Amino acid sequence: MDLFDFKDGREGYYGDYGGTFLPEILHSTIEELKRAFRDAREDPSFWQEFVELMQSYSGRPTPITHLANLSKQLGGAQIYVKREDLNHTGSHKINNVMGQGLLVKRMGKSRVIAETGAGQHGYATATMAARFGFHSKIYMGAVDVARQRPNVFWMENMGSEVIAVRDGQQTLKDAINECLRDWVTNMDDTHYVLGTACGPHPFPEMVSWFQSIIGREARDQLMALSGRLPDRVFACVGGGSNAIGLFQGFMDDSDVELVGCEAGGFGPGKGNHAARLAYKDASVGVAQGMKTYFLQNDDGNMLETHSVAAGLDYIGVNPVLVHLWEQERVRFEAVTDEQVTEALKLTMRSEGLIPALESAHGFAQALTEAASMSTKEVVLINMSGRGDKDIFTIADAIGDDHWKQFIRAKANEYGTE
Amino acid sequence: MALSNYISEQLAAREGSSRGALLMTHVVCGYPSFEENWQELEIMAAAGVELVELQFPFSEPSADGPLFVKANQQAIQNGVHVDDCFEFMQRVTDIFDFKVVMMGYFNTVFKTGPRDFMQRLKAAGGSAFILPDLPVDEAGELHELAAELDLDPIVLMTPTNSPERLQKLAQAAKGFVYCVARKGVTGSQTEMNAEVADFLSTCRKYTDLPLAVGFGVSQKSDVDFIASHADIAVIGTAALKTWESGGAPALTEFFAQLAA
């Protein structure tokens, strides 16, 4: 199945979802990007260059790890994990970013801007900009800046300017709006490195294409390791780029069940979560450049969202995944903050792995389901990022007293300004 | 009367007067409040403004600059709903002579239901609508609905458009064309120079409709410049800024100076 063959439909649409909804001033910029992307896609040497770059710079291919202890402990399916956390900068975000960086070089632009939620995409973009010699500005909601200082620290130290966005809910969606405002002003020399498979066409397609490196590797690796295809594949879904990246490897394997895990936050009820599809609080709308499901009210204004994971706390969702959900090719589940914290603790203790809070949503759902599957069955989880960056949030969530003592001591050491 | 006819008549009436361009102003519904909106509109009407944009607040106003972003957010926080905006529009068109143009983002229309929204816009006395995040390529169905109701979709032309694109935009345009004087979002200053004049004469080549010029129009000299190159000066952020800093007396003075 080629998700991106638009011959029989409208370009940039997946079923009823997707499209390009942008101010007219960006029309020529988007056309230019579409052309550059198409040329790159049709040029086999481009993908080759991308793969080589990811090997030498980011440690690809990332391995697959068998969670032997947890599989045994739960007594169900064999659990395997695709280790995107082992990428440089600690998450799958770097795949898309380096790909777009190569594209920026082809387009001859000199400046990049990016939105970031958890900060992983901003961190990756700052890295790419430093490596390629681009000027860079990262827009990040002020709330996210406050909860993800370690990533901000690295971005700034790699030479990016980080702007704390104080509009709206001061989270990811507001950072995207601010990027669009920058882009309508500076499109001549600037490329907007959108971080997830959302936004106007061609971004959902382009980001999915770069992230498909995850699924391409994973299928071969898992076949080699376990001798069979997985029965179920789990990935967390914020915007949806790591999920679509992994899922693409199994799109034609109709027996492989694909499961997207959304942020259930405090549980169902408007404003409590960021589960667009698993809960029933979202509806179809047009915003942030695309038509998809949004958490919005009857006037079409966006609702507050909540998740312990900054990277999943987003109002909209990848239009390709919505289409696959409607086709019943992808199942969606919501995982609450509490379940996430439990799964994280279990994974750390049993396997010595620290999934990011985002990725831990996939773990939580997979561990629950694996327990009631047979020992011959196989599940695959995308560990889209590593949890070190979440040390402040995780320490809070598990109420770690030693950590609190350390922070107090550190604060005393710095003293008052 | 069709909007373009109204504009031609008003332009003819302005011939030889000191203000050669028509004025289109802008208020964000419910910001700072509907009461203050009304006071602003009274001042605008007294100054002889010919067209007013009523912006329906949206939570993601990505084409707007900081002041309007704040206005949109505050209005929503004040509890302004689509219903309130239509009610207000009805009161406005009942009393005032200027023509009213709905301005907002496509999701407000989409979520209300395009047919329902257009019917309500018509019923409330609106003449046209501007949706800056709805490109013409996606607007076919909505424009057909609008045509049935004799509502004009206002299309934007921008300095980055190719000749082929301008042609396509011209084909979709009705009422008047909104020419975006520069790159960027609403609110910052635009230097009205030869570059803008060239852009406007390019737009003129593609359409016979009246041309409105917006983004950064703030002073009498801008209006004069627009009078010699286009038809309608769009005053957005500058008026709101004036209202916020000095209230009714300042806004009255602002329009007196613009219309002088």
What does this structure look like?
The complex is a heterodimer of chains A (417) and B (260). Chain A is of the alpha/beta class and 417 residues long. Chain A is built from 15 helices and 14 strands. In chain A, strands 3-4-14-9-10-13 form a six-stranded mixed beta sheet, with helices on both faces. In chain A, strands 7-6-5-8 form a four-stranded parallel beta sheet, with helices on both faces. Chain A is globular, with a radius of gyration of 20 Å. Chain B is an alpha/beta fold and 260 residues long. Chain B has a single domain (3-253), classed as Alpha-Beta Barrel (TIM Barrel), CATH 3.20.20.70. Chain B has helices at residues 3-14, 34-46, 66-77, 82-95, 106-112, 114-123, 140-148, 163-172, 194-206, 220-229, 237-259; strands spanning 22-28, 51-55, 99-103, 128-130, 152-153, 155-157, 177-180, 211-214, 232-235. In chain B, strands 5-4-3-2-1-9-8-7-6 form a nine-stranded parallel beta sheet. The longest helix of chain B has 23 residues, at 237-259. The mean pLDDT of chain B is 95. At the A-B interface, α1, α8 and β11 of A face α3, α5 and β6 of B.
Provide the fold topology:
The complex is a heterodimer of chains A (417) and B (260).
Chain A: E1 13-14, E2 17-18, H1 27-42, H2 44-58, E3 64-66, H3 68-74, E4 78-83, H4 93-107, E5 111-116, H5 120-132, E6 135-141, H6 142-147, H7 149-157, E7 161-165, H8 172-186, E8 190-192, H9 203-226, E9 232-236, H10 241-247, E10 257-265, E11 283-287, E12 290-294, H11 319-326, E13 330-336, H12 337-351, H13 357-371, E14 378-383, H14 391-397, H15 401-414
Parallel strand pairs in A: 4-14, 5-6, 5-8, 6-7, 9-10, 9-14, 10-13
Antiparallel strand pairs in A: 1-2, 3-4, 11-12
Helix pairs in contact in A: 2-4, 4-5, 4-9, 5-7, 9-10, 12-13
Chain B: H1 3-14, E1 22-28, H2 34-46, E2 51-55, H3 66-77, H4 82-95, E3 99-103, H5 106-112, H6 114-123, E4 128-130, H7 140-148, E5 152-153, E6 155-157, H8 163-172, E7 177-180, H9 194-206, E8 211-214, H10 220-229, E9 232-235, H11 237-259
Parallel strand pairs in B: 1-2, 1-9, 2-3, 3-4, 4-5, 6-7, 7-8, 8-9
Helix pairs in contact in B: 2-11, 5-6
